Queue: 4 jobs
Job 1
Amino acid sequence: MPQQNMKDSASAHEALHTATSLQDCVVFMGNCGQVLAASKSFAGPTKLTSRLILFISRDKDPVFLFEISFPLGEGQTDNENVGFGVKHRYTFGKSKVEANDRQTVEVRFPRGKTQAKCLAAPASIVDQFRVKDKDKVCILTVSVTAPVTIVGYGCPFRSADREVNSWVNDNKPIGKGVNLQTFLKQQSFTFLVGKGAVDFERRLGLDRLPPPFHYPYGDDQTWNEARLAKESTLRGDQFPLRYSHPDDLSHVTAIVQGTSQDIMWLNERRKEIAATKFSGYFVTPPDGTIDKATSLYLVIARTPEFKHKQAWVHLQKGHLVKVALFNSPSDETEEETWNAKIVSSSEDIPELSDHAIEKHELFLIVQTKVKPDAPYEIKCYCSREAAQDKDHKRRVDAANLFRSDADPVNFDLLGLPSDPQFPQHMLDEKLMTIEKRDLLAKVHDRMDLHRALLRGQGFYQWMSKPAPRDIVEAMEAMMLRDAPATLRPLPVVNFLEGVDKEYADAIVDEALPSDHKRLCAYLEYRPLGLGIATSCPGSSTTTFAAAATLVMQASLGPIFCSAPTNVDVDNFASRIDNRSAMIAARCNDRKHVGRAPRVHRRFVVRAYDMTHESVAFRRLLQDPNQGDNAAPNSFFDPPSNWKLHLSRVYWLLVLLRSPTVRSLHQDDAPVLHHLQQGIDKNPDIAGLRALVTGAIDWETFSGSKEYDIAMTTAGEYLDDIARRAEILCATPADSENDKSVKMFKLHAKGFAIDEAYNMKRPDLYCTWGNTLSPLFVFGDRKQLRPAVIMLTELWPNSKKRPGEFINRFARDAQISALEYLQASGIPTYRYDDLDTTKASD
């Protein structure tokens, strides 16, 4: 289904299964005292608007609440001009995240702990407002015996109205009443409602609310293929989009099930297809000989009634399959298993000129191992590489990083001890020293804040808790115990802190002159250490992303960069490297050689699968002119994504002084010059240096006594290059599967994600970790959303309407990393007019 139609479908689904009562109202401070907020229909004397809402949905918790909206300014023009950014919100009914000029705080009343009483409103109160039917107005008093839930409070806020700013950011009293924090802690709330008392109390029916909603899955959402496969058979309609969750389990469940349900049904069909035998025959080559053939064409006769047509449409997209050959239909054990590839068209293939291929027949080219001199019964099944399961497991594991009991992934970077027996795991808290336990408490607090961000319901709960303290801090707090309790603020990171002014100015110069001031303001004030930047198509977001990434690196240290696809990561790495060189050149243009300090180019590495790097390195030693063609290639294997530029192999060739790549520049990173000096003096690779520089040929080197140790040492250098990078770029999968890349990721001081409108959330989580490290995400607002395989697929023979969907979380799985963070309340820097002359330097 096209993306636009999918949005329309989501809106229709929400309307079908939701009964929402929206009621204009006036919110008083105390018992009919000063007005805090009022719906526009009442024309109340306040800058804040309000509504009462009774929300009932089949797939969400029913809730009774009221909301207060605070103005940000028309079009948020002022906020955008000063560098605060633009706030976005998920719009119910439109099923999309869009800019919204008001920031809303919801006060949700506790279920079963709420009493509502309606009385006719006295004329003295009604006359203060614009009311059409004054006889049908009531005073609603809502009392609670448990704390209300505050949603949306604490998100970064700035209004063009200074008075409103003071109410929210400085907690100043609103008019002659109380401040906002005091108001939210009340146990009784009073409203003026434009309905008759008896009628409205009856309509509320708080004692008749449907039961609470929970996803029909267990608390355990870790990777277990058997359990997840069983859970995927719980049929039903698709669940609605959720940009916020009431608890961590709800958030983790949506991510895990959206990932697993996209592949579990296909996995089961794959197994069924693999258990099915078909008749088939090999096509004799034109010369009539097959004894020495390394590949042959194979025609498999599937029956016209083949029952797995729906699954096969998806399974055959990779074209790579395996065929198992049996001597007879009764055999249980295959004679051979061969690699094969689906041929999409038999036209222009001489071998098939006399073979008419029917629609139900499958045409393959197979990699032969023995002479096919007998008729075979054949099983054909799509290749299921371990890496595919590993990728789905990686995403499920990434979602489980945000369970409330998860350990910090980068505990070593944070100064926490590892388990001596299992160094990849953190030491049990019970075995830690008091100092380390205090540190762990602070890390857990930061993880709690990270989870609050991803739950998307604001930060009131986190802000209300006291910050964890060590013994000294606790003693100091006791001395101040009589001080009034206040909510703690969100942490803020300054991405320009510690950056040399000349270098910072040169980086910011990547933007248009009119953007300099607001860009600096945005970089200097990043709540939660989180930045979001979007652009219109054609505005070269990657160039801006490169500039922002270089700022982060200069301020924070090593930065890990990623993007949804290998091509995206290639482009991101190349642009960062290009901009770094240009910026260094501009800064050093008037400096003489040897005069310190010169601005150095940042050491940018594009890390690929280490197996592919090793194969490419060996091939380039044999033929230095292969370039990108040195990547592993096999007709019966998936194509390699390896490219030479900025790869580990590229940098090793630079260090070895290969004439096929560029030489080190005086402005290259000091670590590169240091590495090259070590390589020049290393006797174990003298022969390798001679080979790379052309002094000897491959035959001489490969036959030498030092060949083995030289190649082993070269492999160690390839690993070391990744660890020593200042900016490392890799896909989310490689960040977990490659040891040296993962080590860099776990010690990175910040993260940058390009093309984040197309990135799946679990890919972001896998990359980013769970301790709220500084992050900047970039994206094009018109980019396609993440791909979902089972977006609209129904269970075969589904008779229920509107249907039983194979992936009940498909719409939720389509939510991108960038728009999910936007909906959480983090301001976005909109970057529409990049200086294209600089972008093309």
Note: The domain at 274-387 is CATH 2.40.30.230 (Elongation Factor Tu (Ef-tu); domain 3).
Job 2
Amino acid sequence: MDFNNNPQLKLAYEFIENTGKSVFLTGRAGTGKTTFLRYIRNSSFKRSVVVAPTGVAAINAGGVTVHSFFQLPFGPILPNNAGTEQSQGQENRFLKLNKEKINIIRSLDLLIIDEVSMVRADMLDGIDKVLRRYRQRNTPFGGVQLLLIGDLQQLPPVVKEDEKDLLSPWYSTFFFFGSLALREMPYISIELKHIYRQTDQEFIGLLNKVRDNLLDNHVLGMLNQRYRPDVREMQNQGYITLTTHNQQAREINTRRLEEINKTKRHFTARIDGEFPESAYPTEQNLALKAGAQVMFVKNDPSPQKLFYNGKTGKIVGMDDDVIYVECPGDTDSIEVSRVTWENNRYALDPETKEIKENTIGSFTQFPLKLAWAITIHKSQGLTFEKAIIDANAAFAHGQVYVALSRCKTLEGLVLSTQISQHSIKNDYSIRDFTQNIEQNPPNEGVLNQARLQFQYDLLEDLFNFSPMRYRLNYLRKAVNENPGSLDEGLSPLLNETDRFLQKELMDIASKFMVEINKHVGRQKDIENNSQLQGRVSKACNYFLPRIEKGIETILHNLDLEVDNKQLKKTLSEAHQRLIAEIDVKKACMETCRHGFKTAEYLAARAKAAIEPDTKTAGKRVKAVSVTDTSQHPELMKELRVWRDKVAEQTNKPIFAILPKKSMITITNTLPATKKALQAIHGLGKIKVAQYGDDIISLVMDYCTNNDITPNYEIELQTESKPPKPLKQPTAEISLELFEQGKSVSEVAAERNLAVSTIEGHLATYVKTGRIPVNKLVESSKIETGMKYLKEIGSETTMSDVKNALGEEFSWAEVRIIFAHYQYTTQQTA
């Protein structure tokens, strides 16, 4: 794409390609917004998806509709905190996506929304909800970069009266920029200035005045010179009438076609697969006559480029497979054949993991429609040589500007009624928003800062192990809450893994980022900072083997076997999410072993975020357990395979065949008789009668193959309950939550304890030096409190200290400062 003479377009490209900043790209009709969309879609290294609010807009943009991609409900989408039954019910409706769609979302870099002027604020918040659910929950739009394209002075979003009542308490405006999520996310707005559609500078100036609601007597006078009372006579001269409603356009086209005294021919479209009627680019049953005025509804796909979307002409002949159209200014008639529009769906290439478009349906028809009249709505994006406009019709916001700007020249415009000040409807929220855009244009300095910040954010993400620890703690929580159902060695193993993650990864990464910041301070351009690149390479080579050996190997071999179906599902999901987080981290570090490059990093992160097939994932999880208390893990494995097969054949739950605890006892005692089997807890006479022969056969084969003597006699016993695992100290739980970045009040809320209780827990760790005192108390108060304690000595009581320090100190602050004083005293003793 040629960016010469168009600095705003070049700036927009640089922001999209080289930063993480979201962009609202606007501009008057004919400034190249659609051309830019196609260029980004076809040339950017970022993984992108294009969506639009309507079927026709989506087909024209080469994308899909917002509703189909995100599975949004039709009607208002209320905020989560709206507290209504409708808002709660919607959560269950539009967040159910299939696995492939989820993988596309997780691997997405850039979301392009075309015709954003027609996207309501609540719809954009619905998109935000879906992206947050499947990506980063605490980041607007899940951390996806947005490219919003549209002109707010054109067609507005549709909001019914009853919908206004529901949405008004939450939204100050229904335009997209009223989105609650968008307000949380800093984005830049770029207005394109160079107009390609019109070349007449005087006409461009008039259109800009209409667009910006700056009508004065001069502008009205110039436009009203195009008023023609004899407009009906001009309809035979190749003019197209722009109407406000479909019915008006349909009546004019039908009447004008019937006035032609020639044979009518019908051409039926061929529709294959899925192609919704709302997206039909022309009539399914096209009725035409020689002499009819028609408009092309698609660009010529042939190399000759004889026609474009919006070009008008007259039919001069028709065959079964060819229609001949004569256009003003052309020396020869155009032979028009049927063309095909495709309805695509996004999918993942199973080999490359790239986002691709699969054709799920098509619409084949002559790219023509009757064109004595067309609605304003359907004219958006088109260009006409001649147009008739009734400016006093019931136009909605922006429609007069859309209608006027369809014309290439002022001379091609005809008004059936004169324009007045009241003909133009404008929205004050749009005026304020667009004025802000004009007053705060981004420049090269803002771009450069955003580019460097984007590189830094990605590098910080590379060495951020907090998401991994979050996933690990979620698994630990599920294990610790069910001690009697799982292997007793599992909880200590996960606790040790957490300590390793903290000490060997997080603590080292924190120190490394201090070093990174020093390098960045000397040279901010990370990709061209050779010293920094060397440090990044060494760091990746340091962390990778520790992730693999210290965490991944253990997690891949956990024994999460449990009889309870719901608990098994919870553990499996928590485990898979943790493994997925590790896979993404490893892929990012692997690609940065030889240095950091933005494009390579994004590609590696995106592909690693795609979940593997469940079959592959299942095989990886079912490795030999490292926590199993079984003395013969191979026999345990064989028993599991046998049990699962029997459960499947009999359609019974696995615990009804052979509970896990009974399996462990079997592998540890190696019973060789049915009498010995009956001595095992969980195996009564009925189960032994049903499955005893199979179990004994497995035990005997294992013992024979491994030269082991089985047990022929085991005394009948009542298995004593295993000792309860040590309960994790309550203060330690509070510490872990606090070290995850939660505030004292958040920890208290999560644990359903009083804030003062949590403060007491944390004071314990201030006393040991684990928690720095300045994380809990202001520096000025620490200084005052410590000064008093050093003067009075440790023989005093906290009550005395509180009375001495006064009401500005809370009891919690006194307790924490006192604990810090005890810690410093111990260190200097």
Note: The mean pLDDT is 84.
Job 3
Amino acid sequence: MDASHSIRAPAISILLISASALAFEVLLMRIFSVIQWHHFAYMVISLALLGYGVSGTFLSIAQKWLLNRYPVAFVGNSLLFGLFILVSFLIAQSISFNPEELFWDWTSYFRLLLIYLCLSLPFFFAANCIALTFLRFGDKISKIYAIDLIGASIGSMLVIALLFTTLPNEAIRYLSLAGVLAGLIAWIEIGNTTHRLLISGVCAALIIAVIPSSWLALKISPYKSLPQVLTISGTRTLEQLSSPLGLISVVESEQVPFRFAPGLSLLATQTPPEQLAIFTDADAMTVITKNQGDRQSLSYLDYLTSALPYHLRRMNNVMILGAGAGSEVLQAKFHNVANIVAVELNPQIIELLTHRYADYSGNLYKSDNIEVRIDEARGLVLKDNNHYDLIQLAMLDSFSAAASGLYALNESYLYTVEALTEILRRLNPQGYLAVTRWVKLPPKDTIKLFATAVDALKLLSITDVEKHLVLIRGWQTSTLLIKITPFTLQEIAAIKQFNEKRAFDAAYYPGIKPDEVNKINIINQPYFYLAATALLSEDSEQFIKNYKFNIRPATDNKPYFFNFFKWETFNELLGLRKQGAMAMVEWGYMLLVITLLQVLVVSILLILSPLKLLKTTQHGIFPGYLKLKVFIYFSAIGLAFLFLEIVFLQKFMLFLHHPIYAATAILTGFLLFSGIGSALSARLLNKLQRKRIVIYAVTGISVVSLLYIAILPGIFNGFMQWSLLPKMIFSMLLIFPVALLMGMPFPVALSELNVTSQPLIPWAWAINGCASVVSAVLAALIAVQYGFTAVISLAVLLYIVAAIFFPNQKVTFAREKT
């Protein structure tokens, strides 16, 4: 009798393992956003898939030995999966790594690789469980794959709920316990195993439960703002709040009180009053200013570059996008604005200002003339029918992170050409859009913002663009004003007077002369003026091409405003590294490139290593062209699946406002509907040839994906006014057709191999996993360089290649010796 009938497939365990593994993946994205930076999310996805790739290679070598011990192997791997969620996290935390050290400390590469491999271990054990079950129950591959994907979709939803109730580091403990629980359930489901495993599982659970919370404390990069602030004597964290939107830390400094007023004029006579700092993910500092009703104590707010629009005309209706703890809102109130709309995405920050620190802030967000809206800025602008005298984009990123390029891969849909166009449409005819940025040398983001504003005005069919822009700078900040009608002579006179009284420099206004720039805060050359005039000239395209950094305006197709990387400039900076030029390198981008190189090397080794072992085995002889088909097919679908998943995740950030919400909806949708597609493919096997199923699926994937390139922007705009939960559900329904079809090519090809060449299944699993490892990072790099449309188009091409190389070659089996 076939051994596979003596036990039943551990469906519940697989469901729980898959849920825990995906939840751990999403949680690591959240944790890396806190301890390092947002771009580590791509590394997390990649390292999860690395574990799956290594598993395939391991099983291609040891499958016979493990299959003969399937009950013990499955339960053991389940328990190790749960245990190593915690163990690998603790080990990774103990490895010191800072991305900014990569170019002067070669050991940083080794430490990054060590973290990468360490955190892939839980996924390795999880993949072993699933792949072994594929092999043991070959006739049920589609159903097992469906359970795997549905479990993963459940995990991506549950981790969001977990992040609302517990800190990210404590959530590690719960997921580790869930993994061990999966092993204990497997011990019951499968049977035919030893009591030692049961005892080991119970002991592991007890150890995980009693580990001190101090061991799990997040070790945050010293390059982030919060650790730097906490080195000041007398500084302490008052409280921390967790949610999927970020880890909020409220910090007090008793001995050296916070005096946060970026770019405060050197002529200001009033320093800021006492403040509390609020950090999101240990960075992006904003402050709660103590307000006891003394107007004079707030007069410093009139000595910031962002105060400029209040001196040009009377403001009655003002909207602050990204209000945070209220610095810009307080500035508007100081200038006696009649109606202020404060827009903030994170409800926990609003809760702090309206409850625990309401008295401290002078009940700022409870003021009669202030309307607080908990919403995403871009979405609110689209659904708001009001018009404003001033819309202000708050500056919430830290200077150090912005200067070092660590935001390079942050998608920002608020700084695209389309976003500025939509905001400008919400202005009154004489209204202003004001954007304040850090002053950095050489100039990057201020110049890129100016170029974006030029394109936005042109998109509104404004021809005399040079009359609609004003740029001033202080010693630390710059403020750009954009207007849909030309600036008047009276406004220009007011701008000159404002600058003179506060020692700010004019970088551009209509009719400015070269001798009027770079007079107070003197720099080597009038870079800002020269760039502004060049961008308004007929040679603007040539200027953008020749500029040392990437200042091409960001668009919704390439929403990477903070990516200033250029390879040509990087080579120059390398040659000047001894002169300190490496500080100008875009570290976020380079880290992704380095990660890609590492995973390429590891993935090639993992794919090629079992080739000799599979050349001729006791199971059969595999022709070279069959292995070539297997290699091409599973590489192509591995790359293509993640290309589409990653790019849809990035595109839906515009619709769902935050990476973690987009990850939850898109990952859940892709995995759930792919699981349904896998189950559906099992039924189709009785009616259609396997290759025909793949051809139909690939045709559908191609048509829907290319169609979405054209229609998604319009859909997003049409439904942007919906609240978050309906939009998340709608997003999942939008990806239903393509995700359903994407769930078919993998299990259908595995079922083909199960009939014709079963020993190649682990290798196919490894190839698919390793291709997925590469694709997670590669998709991000292609999106940054060429945009989302290029990634989608390439994914469609890869699916077509896969259909052509479907591995349906039969193998001649040799007789086994008896």
Note: Residues 1-220 form a domain with the Growth Hormone; Chain: A; fold (CATH 1.20.1250).
Job 4
Amino acid sequence: MLCLFALGLFLVTAGIPAFASACRRHIAQQRTSPNSHTFELRTIVSTPRETLSQQARQLYEAGQFAEAANLWQQAADLYAQQGAILNQAQTLNYLATAYQELGQWSQAETAIETSINLLQKNNSSTAIAILAQALNNKGSIQLARGQTEAALETWKQAEQNYSRAKNETGKLGSRINQATALQALGQYRRSKTLLDRLVGELKTQPDSLLKADGLRSLGIALQTIGDLLQSKEILEQSWAISQRLGANTNTGETLLSIGNIARDLKEYDVARAYYQSAQKRAKNAIASIQAQLNLLSLFVETKQWEAARALVPEIQSTISNLSPSRAAIYARVNFAESLMEMSGGASEQVSRGAGEQVNAYGVGFTNQPTTQTDNLTQPAPVGEQVNAYGVGFTNQPTTKTNNLTQPAPVKDNISVISFPVASELQPVGASSQLPITNYQLPITNKANHSNATGFDITSVAQILATGVQQAKQINDKRAEAYALNQLGKLYEQSQQWQDAKTLTQQVLQIAQEIDANDIIARAAWQLGRILKQQQDITGAIAAYRNAYNNLQSLRSDLVAINPDVQFNFRDNVEPVYREFASLLLQPNANQEDIKQARTVIEALQLAELDNFFRDACLDIQPAQIDEIDTQAAVFYPIVLSDRLEVILSLPKQPLRHYSTPLGAAQVETFLQKVYSSLYIGYSSQERLRLFQQVYNWLISPAQADLNNSKITTLVFVPDGFFRNLPMAALYDGKAYLVEKYAIALSSGLQLFPQGLERQKPTALTVGLTEARLGFSALPGVLVELKQIANELNSKILLDKQFTRQTFTQQMNATSFQIVHLATHGQFSSNPEETFLLTWDGKINIQDFDQFFQKRRVGILKPIELLVLSACQTASGDKRAALGLAGLALRSGASSTLASLWSVNDESTANLMSEFYRQLTGSSPSITKAEALRQAQIALLKNPLFDHPYFWASFVLIGNWL
């Protein structure tokens, strides 16, 4: 069986492995789902000499993969000698599974190919059944190796063979795996359609254990693509069926999964209740520790310190009675991470100062065989087999997580071990091969951590040291690296820099030996932080570059899987990018360093969009803007922990950068105040003062260069809260910025070619004037669309005509150059809350994708201009403009004109009419940015609408030409 994970991202949890529990109940289970959900396959072959295989299975289930692999190899050799081909093929399949756990990919590939070759010429029903299992396993290996298209085809073959073998469970698992592969390829719509079809098929079947298990698998798969509400509904149906049938199988895992969804939805009390129910129904110590660790991490996340402290002794007791295995090591690391979090209590951790903000899920980069997340630094919930990719970060056959740095709440399947407590420890650094079980942690940190947890920091070190010892005992390099890295983090937290460095360098050595890029990324980031503290800036830059390069190579795995993961990703992955850029932008930075910093920030922008969409399908490249427009200057404001940096790109000139010594929190607080000043009742004098201050940060240091270069257009690649700010309203003490320059926003990514026909371009204009679904009427929309019709050759869909179906038909039938939507809409950092309103419902951003599909594949010409004239950013969402950027990019439009907040109907109608008049007027050389500028100035000159509230809301994103 196989459970895969994704980092990635990002998903996104932190760096400690989560757990893989029930996935290992029977090794005869096939590796069916990269989402870490598996389906049981009956043992097909029985032989008189099963001793080796039985022992191997027991070792595998205990998480002792190296020993299991050794015995399976012996068994396979014996079967080969005896000519027992089917037994040999099935044993090789199991062997490949163990090799995957160990990260020994070439051995896994050899074993599975040999198994398949042995089976392909045998048409017996038994051979077909084993072949289906082997193909499923092969697909998992291919997915983990980044061969996603090959994995998809292999899983289709597996489905065919399961059908021939009349194995409905295996067939369902293969189809879920196909949905996972489609998601990994960025084909979200096809993936969702397939999952919905499977849900429909299962719902029509009579209640049975098979149906309950299938619904549970589908629920987890839906969770991986971010469809939380449907996932929760399906999982609750699975639970209800199990209850009606009186079945206890997998009920604990189901409850954990529902608890994790509730946690993602911020329903913390509900999550707590499900975790507690899961623990009560735990079939074994492994299932129990999953629930306990998830509950502990939930208490840590929500800062319920008393409840957390009360749970610690119970967890300690459970862990102490577990046998050595990978899952037990992960349990120790997870437990230690939560204790480290608790030791900081309500105060900030040392590691957070280093940019590691712990995430709600806990562990990342995990190896474990059951879950996947994208967080880089914190304890995560247990029981969630989340990953749609199962790639890269984990070797194991049951779970994958995307965390980069910490123990995550235990997710669905776990395998745990008992740990002998480490004996007397000596100081680290005594030898290059740290004898972890023989050194002591001399705590030098002045903080008294025992007050918060009841554990002193030396006890936490012993928990981790025992984990390292156990990993060595079972020859599990991956688990050893995880535990060792967490121990290094503990030294880092205690400010014992040299010892932390020595441990982290050991982690990197192990990770490189086993080709574990996920662990390398995590450890390299940790090493970079340590070297920075030691004032070794050159070494720190090299370490951060290593971390950055590995994160880039793991881009698909960094994709957020849970909807809330985007924030986890931001807290735990984003710091790597920002801290790297900060190190590069030293006062004496050369051109190479400045260019690298710009590239890193652009990569961060792309990673954020990957995370927003929960897939890494955006195949776009940075654009050389100065080659596109020789009169455009590009500003990259970059918010760093200790300062605001600005990189300036002028045509045919070297890059330059300048900074303001303001920390990220100060900048954000100030910008929020600036944004609030846009309300009409705010003091005009104070508003101008605030906007002038931002002008002084961004523009003033470059004003002379702008004048000398005869710049006419300013392009901003905004970062953080700057995305929500209308740059047109910046003030130099005499005039607004829009009075001097045309303005556009860009993500720094590839620009689509200009192609708008300026003389009466074709347009589809749609809108709502009446109140719908709780949204207010927009009476001015009728005037707006009529005025636009005077300037454009337009097709109008108004009110009842503007349904989802008619809009789809029009979009797929005609190559409109402009699409203008005058309807309520909202941009949010949560894709589920980014939508446009039609007469009969909402179009969310994922659905929005389908309207532009024919244009992306070349059947219809791409849209040149998408206009969203009545939308707004979500109130209270600091990153709401990410939804706008995502929607603009998803449409494939060359340019998008949209409003940051909902504006007066009359002023909007006037601005849009003037914009189109300028765009289609007598001057063929006018750019879209200049047309918008002229329209904004026209309102600015109108006494009724001269306040920025009326004209500054509108921003142009993408190609401004």
Note: The chain has a mean pLDDT of 79.
